[in-house]
Structures are given as C-alpha cells and as structure tokens.
Amino acid sequence: MSDTSRPITYADAGVDVHAGDKAVELMKASVRRAQRPEVLGGLGGFAGLFDASLLTRMQRPVLATSTDGVGTKVAVAQAMDKHDTIGFDLVGMVVDDIVVCGAEPLFMTDYIATGKVVPERIAAIVGGIAAACEQAGVALVGGETAEHPGMLEPDEYDVAGAATGVVEYSDLLTPDRVRTGDVVLGIPSSGLHSNGLSLVRKVVASAGWGWEREVPEFGRTLGEEVLTPTRVYAADLLRLIRTDGVDVHALSHVTGGGLAANVARVLPQGVAAVMDRATWTPAPVFQVIGELGKVPQLDLEATLNMGVGFVAVVPQDSVDTTLEVLESVDLPAWRMGEIVGIDSVDRDRGELVTGSKGVDAGGAQLVGQYAG
C-alpha cells in the first residue's frame, strides 16, 4: 500500500524543472549565434518572433514549411554518448527539404523529448542544432525540452524540428520546368546522413559488431563513421540558384526512399531520369553495410543515399557553370544522367521507379554498375 501521508512533488514524478532551467542557461550562447536580423526578442518566450516585413518587398511571397526528425540515428548517438552532431542531422533533414522548392529557410524551432534532462547533454544537442542553423543562415527562434519519465529511459531522447521559408512565386522550382534533354547532376553526401539507420542497426546487431569496433575501410570506429553529420546544403544551393548563368530546373533531397524514388518525385509525368551508377563510387560505408548484411542491391538503394545527398536537374547550357559553383563550395558534383521521355526507357536495364510518396510524377532509373 502506498504512503499517502507524504506530499508528492513534480520531482518525485521524475521531472526536474531546475535541470531544465540549467539546460537553457547552458545553450544560450550557442543559440545567440544562430540568429538573423529579423528575429525579435530572445530565448525563453512563449513564441519565437520573426519580423516578416521582408515579405512586403515580394510580389507574391509563398511560404514553405517542413518538419522532420532524425529517426533511429539518435540510438547510435546515445550508444556512443556523443550528442553534439545530431543537431546537424536534424537541421539538414528539415531545412534542405525547403530548398528543394527554391525557398530560403528563415527560421526553425526544435523539440527534444527525453527520459531525464541532463543539462549538459541537452546543451550539446541544441549546440549542434544552433551551429547547423548558423551554417544554413537560418534563425533558431525557439524550442522545447520535455522530460518524459516512465515513457523514455533516463538516457534516451528523441529530437524533431520544424522550419519555415519563403520564395517568390515566380521562382518556385516545380516539375513543369524540367525538359527532356536536361542533365542530372549528383551532389555528394557526407555519408549515411539520417535515413536507413534502422537497416544499418539491424545489420550491425546481426553481425555482432559494436559501435566501438575499428573498421579499416573507415580508418575509425564504426560509430564514428555512422555518426558523421548530415551535410547541410541550404546556403550553398541557394547561392547556386541565385547565380547568373545557372538555370536550375529541379532539386531533389535524397532522404528516405533512396536516390531513384526521391528524384522521381520532382519530375513531371511523362519523363524519367536515367542515372548511370558508373559515374560515381559510393563511400566505403555503403559497401560495408551491404556486404555485412548481405543486403540486396535494390533494397540498399531504396534505403540509403548511396553517396548522393542532393540531385540537381539543369539544362545542358547550365552544366559547366553549375559544376563550377558547386566545386567552389566544396561540393564536387558530377554528371550522372539525363532526362528522357518515359516511354523511351529501356526497362531491361534496371527498375523504373515511379509513384514514390504517393506523388503522381515522373520516373527514375539506375543503370550500370558502380565505379570502383
């Protein structure tokens, strides 16, 4: 029988509001760096404030919004007790989806749910989010840390975020810009990014490997390789879009569903992107995971990005300038394929992927074998 004579406090229920306050104090400096001139007020308000008067200078401003998390990559961060990079994964998954339509991400908020607030850990997570926002030119205007004792273990947490951007209606990147004869350019990923980690974790567990295992192909531990932060592309791709002599017809963020499915989503009906695997060599992590788990190639490609973080579709006369701009921001892109009429696709060369994410759009096909 429980003792009802003693008062029960919030702390007795497992929630430490003082730890939450300390976490906010620890993260203030990093959040201050992730600002824009339009931000009003400071950290700690009930809502983040952003001066939207810049929209009045636009003829037909269109707001773009996106929300996402990082999936089970947080489990690897927790196993490695390394929490200062997962924020890059979160920001990349959110703001880079906004850039796909040509919009500039303006501000972002985050949400962290944890079994127990450890101020230093929360500050490390938010520090990574703030650093990535700073890199992307996005303001981190607010967030929430929630303590969920009994639902999450003390060392467990999950993260999510949402961002808003804006684009002039006439500058929207929509599928109708794409034409047959356009060139498909691959833009490299920094590694696994934040998709397919459930497959990776299953393969690793089945092989009996630990995250601290040194892997010669990586030159570091398995955990360090898997925790490589997601590349945040927003600022660099906005620079590309705004460069004279460049005419971007479409962009695709290669996330859940793999390369072909995400490219198909941004193409109009009646066309397909035919992409040659021989034009690039995926990083060793993709081969190691594939071989370790005997994962079928098509399943691997439908789950992981295979070394391609973004795809740009441009007309022939924009290819050289596009490649030069991307090279200048340390994104050595390459020509990986072209846009063709979907009826001309030779389906004997590879699977034609269509209808991804419920979008009635174009198609995409991977052909050949990877280089190297």
Concise synopsis of the structure shown:
It catalyses: 2-formamido-N(1)-(5-O-phospho-beta-D-ribosyl)acetamidine + ATP = 5-amino-1-(5-phospho-beta-D-ribosyl)imidazole + ADP + phosphate + H(+). By secondary structure, this protein is an alpha+beta fold.
Number of domains: 2
Please, how many helices?
A: 11
Order of adjacent strands in the largest pleated sheet: 10-12-7-13-11-15-14
Separation of termini? Answer: 68 Å
Q: What would the CATH topology of the largest domain be?
A: Phosphoribosyl-aminoimidazole Synthetase, Chain A, domain 2
- Strand content range: 15-25%
* SSE arrangement, N to C: HEEEHHEHEEEHEEHHEHEHHEHEEE
User: Helix share of residues?
Assistant: 25-40%
Low-confidence stretches: none
Number of strands: 15
Instruction: Please identify the structural class as seen in this structure.
Output: alpha+beta
Can you tell me the CATH superfamily of the largest domain? PurM-like C-terminal domain
Mean pLDDT: 93
CATH classification, class level of the largest domain: Alpha Beta
Q: Return the CATH architecture of the largest domain.
A: Alpha-Beta Complex
* C-alpha geometry: globular
What can be said about the biggest beta sheet? Answer: 7 strands, mixed
